[in-house]
Amino acid sequence: MERKGVIIVFFLVIFLSGIISAENCAIVERDSCTGENHIVMGVSAETDAHGEVADQNNYDYVLCCDLGTGNTTCNGENKIIGLENTTNSHAEVGAGITYTNDICYENLDCINKMACNSLEMGILSLSDLIDAHIGRAGDYSIKICCSGMCEEGEEYVENQCTIAQAAYWADSDGNHITHQDVLVENTQIILVLSNSRLSQGTEVTFKIYEQDPLLPDLIRSLNGIVDDNETANIIWTVTQADLDATGETDFDGFYFEVNGESSNLLSLTLVNVSSCGFATLCGDYKFQQECESDICNVGEFSIESKDSEISCDEIETDSEGCQIWASCGCSWMDNTCISKKTENIQPDCEPEGNPSEIGSCFYGESTTDDCEDGFLSYSWESAWSWGIDNIFDNNPGSEGTYILGNDSKWHYDPNLRSDSCTGGSKTVPCPVQIRLPFFGIFNIVSVMILVGLIYYLIKRERD
After folding, report:
1. What is the distance between the alpha carbons of residues 29 and 24, in angstroms, rounded to a whole number?
2. What is the rounded distance in angstroms from the CA atom of residue 125 to the CA atom of residue 225?
3. Distance between CA atoms of 361 and 279, rounded to whole angstroms?
4. For residue range 136-145, what is the model confidence (pLDDT) as tens digits?
5. CA-CA distance, 375 to 328, in Å (whole number)?
6. CB neighbours (10 Å) of residue 87?
7. What is the pLDDT of residues 3-18, one digit of tens each?
């Protein structure tokens, strides 16, 4: 009921504001330009009009904007038009230098054109370039078209500011990236187009280029499908053929184009296959960068080898009908690389108050096996940490959906994912042709210390 009331009030405001719509400027009656609407200048009529500066009060009509705070101070870049006099004046286009009374507003960036494009706001029109009468946006052939109505990261579409379309590179967790360590034929990079305003099911083409002093090199084209969130993404597995197509030995200028948008630049650093001979588990990484980027792609193996029922990124449906999946990888904690499994919930399926993340299981691994016989025997300890928004003093839901944890707090865990976070030992086939260096008693002791540290850090964060 409350939401309906808000909607009704919203439409009343729109109606009473003299046909001013969201993020718009138009000629209206002076009496209707009130509240959050701001007078930019006065005009003698809706069309075929003379003009006056904003602090005059001689006309019944005004150019009214419902954006910004009403700042009409000129800064050298926000001129709309020029007036010959402060009132009862003819006008000239913003680029003119004959008239001395400039009409300016906020951060508008206005030019005169024959037609405004879809990302511009037409606010006025003039009968001529100079000594002109003023009309509404559609009255005369010389249109005053403006941009700059929206905040950074937004663009003007259909009379309102909306989140701008964006194209960017992402890692497996969806984070924006500008650099990636690459194991050829193995590393996957995600190309993302967001806020496309394209309908679900539309096919778009991602064209990957590498910068060149003369002409950019087309590396390859990949097709993606727009989803119901107006987003499309596609995975690029970097191949040797892709690198050869650059004709370069350094790879610091990759970008892609999709739906008229260009991405940020991405640099690649190659990781030799031989340098991954040391890594079978996350615990084999010794440096933070190689751990967090999982350059040898051992994160999923580190998790899935511990439990045959775990399948990273495989989507399941919980008892509430929501989709749940585990994202697997390596995490750097106190100068040690550990395996991390995070249980996620489908965002748009959350009942009100439910978390977006159930929690994470951290694993510290140790082994004395060098994998020489093709099999790896190792053991691990584990620690569970609830999602930051999955800690409740009281049970907010039904029994079986929320459980009472050892911390005496309630947590959303309908499929009891936290119960699967246990220690153990196992012998599994070694992945690919990877061999491990020898691990001794020092590593086993280190893992025991690490697990204790994990519990300590988790407790410290909550306190």
Report:
1. 15
2. 41
3. 21
4. 999 999 999 9
5. 22
6. 17
7. 444 333 333 333 333 3
- Return the amino acid letter for 376: L
Q: What is the mean pLDDT of residues 247-276?
A: 86
Structural domains in the chain, CATH included, are 25-157 (no CATH), 165-270 (2.60.40.10), 282-429 (no CATH)
Give the bridge partners for 42, in sequence order.
52, 62
Q: Pull the structure tokens for residue 171.
A: 């890692």
Whole-angstrom distance, CA of residue 419 vs CA of residue 359: 11
Residue 381's CB: how many other CB atoms inside 10 A?
20
Taking the chain, what is the end-to-end CA distance rounded to the nearest angstrom?
39
Asked whether 17 and 10 are in contact (CB, 8 A), the reply is: no
Give the whole-angstrom CA distance, residue 361 versus residue 152. Answer: 38
- Please state, in angstroms and as integers, the Cα–Cα distance from residue 66 to each residue in 22, 84, 99, 119, 165, following that order: 7, 26, 27, 17, 24
Q: How far is it, in rounded angstroms, from Cα 444 to Cα 226? A: 48
Q: What contacts 170, CB < 8 A, 6 or more positions away?
A: 176, 177, 189, 190, 191, 192, 233
* b/e per residue 226-236 (b: at least 16 CB within 10 A): beeebbbbbeb
Three-state SS for the chain is CHHHHHHHHHHHHHHHCCCCCCCCEEEEEHHHCCCCCEEEEEECCCCCECEEECCCCCCCEEEEECCCCCCCCCCCCCEEEEECCCCCECEEECCCCCCCEEEECCCCEEEEECCCCCCCEEEEEECCCCCECEECCCCCCEEEEEECCCCCCEEEECCEEEECCEEEEECCCCCECCEEEECCCCCEEEEEEECCCCCCCCEEEEEEEECCCCCCEEEEEEEEECCCCCCEEEEEECCHHHHHCCCCCCEEEEEEEECCEECCCEEEEECCHHHHCCCCCHHHCCCHHHHHHCCCCCHHHHHHCCCCCCCCCCCEECCCCCEEEEEEEEEEECCEEEEEEEEEECHHHCCCCCCCEEEEEEEEEECCCCCCCCEEEEEEEEEEEECCCCCECCCCCCECCEEECCCCCEEECCCCHHHHCCCEEEEEECCCCCCCCCCCHHHHHHHHHHHHHHHHHHHHHHC
**pLDDT tens per residue across span 347-373:** 666 556 667 788 999 988 877 777 778
382 phi and psi, to 5 degrees? -140, 160
Residue bearing tokens 């999709």: 258
pLDDT the model gives residue 439:
40
Block residue for tokens 């954006």: 67
